Amino acid sequence: MTVETAPAPIKTKRNLNFLFALTLLGLLVLLCVALSFATPNFATDKNISNLLRQGSMIAILAVGQTFVIITAGIDLSVGAIVGFSTVVVGGLIQADWPVWAAVLVTLIMGLGIGAFHAFGIVSMGLPPFIITLATLTSLRGIGLLITNGSTINITKAAEFTQFSRDSFLGIPNLFWMVVLVAVPAYVFLHHSKWGRYLFAVGSNPESARLSGVSVPRMIYIAYGLSAMFAAFVGVLLAARLGVGNATQGDGWELQAIASSVIGGTSLFGAVGSIHGPLIGAFILAVISNGANLLNVNSFWQRIVTGVLIIVIVFFDQLRRRGR
Q1: Cα separation of 118 and 131, whole Å?
Q2: What are the contacts of 291-295 at 24+ separation with CB within 8 A?
Q3: Taken in order 318, 306, 180, 113, is the CA torsion positive or negative?
Q4: What are phi and psi of 267, to 5 degrees?
Q5: For 233-283, how does the pLDDT look when each residue is reduced to its tens digit (9 = 90+)?
Q6: Closest alpha carbon to 116 in 107, 104, 128
Q7: CB atoms within 10 A of CB 27
Q8: What are the C-alpha distances in Å from 27 to residues 20, 161, 251, 279, 280?
Q9: Which DSSP letter does residue 44 get?
Q10: Residues 6+ away with beta carbon under 8 Å from 79
Q11: Rounded to an integer, what distance in angstroms lies between the CA atom of residue 101 and that of residue 122?
């Protein structure tokens, strides 16, 4: 009688992914401990709650971005979708729509934007960089036109804004939204055939197609999820700030990409996880929060982030060459 075991390469890959996740988690803990000694304000309840809220929205964006990057694509529009979504949900609520209906329409809008990206890539043959960059620019302009460059103050639904300030079991509601997104995303990517198909498309689209995978469908799924998650973040941001403004979320697409890459997602496709980008997002949030508490120039935060990306992508290239 023989016992089936996982092939050695798969076992090795899982072990390396687990080791990398532990390393990231260790880095996050080390940063928190160091900042706790460096400034007494870091470990306070108020600051930790603020840190969790601050990192939660980028973490959700990073999860959506990861689906796209795994297919060897990129989505530069997520920051603009966040800002545009605050305008949509804020405008609908101020127009006396029920909160649930305003949120649902905003999420559907995000899904539609993702479908537009996939259509441009699949049917028009446009590079992901170009189609999502065009959307980034256009959505900012459309949002500013709708609001005439002003801000929408959300005053007609106190429960909408109160939700972002409340906590459950001592943990901010915004962080629970990360859990709400991350758990099904993890099951989808790591324990379903659709997740395997995404990795296959990122590895070799032609081989995936010959194996029976609908490559266009997977592109639609990846970009649809990315844009819908960005719209969800826009809803959360509108709730947190109590305003809708098309300029919000500026630069968040770069933070989402950085979080995903720091979390081990390969910009060359076919390598990624859900837990890695989540940890990566909170590493960046801790660096930003600590730098603010220590009165470090914000420019240094950008430099640190850039250096981390260069180092990780460099080692990713070395790993790929060694295959």
Answers
A1: 9
A2: 293/35, 293/39, 293/41, 293/42, 293/47, 294/35, 294/38, 294/39
A3: negative
A4: -65, -10
A5: 999 999 999 999 999 998 899 899 989 998 889 888 888 899 999 999 999
A6: 128
A7: 16
A8: 11, 34, 24, 9, 10
A9: S
A10: 136, 230, 249, 250, 251, 252, 253, 254, 256
A11: 31
State the Cα–Cα distance between residues 173 and 70, nearest whole angstrom.
29
Q: Which residue, chain included where needed, has tokens 């709708």?
A: 146
CA–CA separation, 159 and 165 (whole Å): 10
pLDDT per residue over 40-70, tens digit each? 889 899 999 999 998 999 999 999 999 999 9
**CA gyration radius for the chain?**
20
Amino acid at 35: L
Let me know: does 260 contact 65? Beta carbons within 8 Å: yes
Question: Is residue 187 within 8 Å of 123, Cβ to Cβ?
Answer: no
Q: Is residue 262 within 8 Å of 181, Cβ to Cβ?
A: no
CA dihedral 274, 276, 280, 286 (to 10 degrees): 100
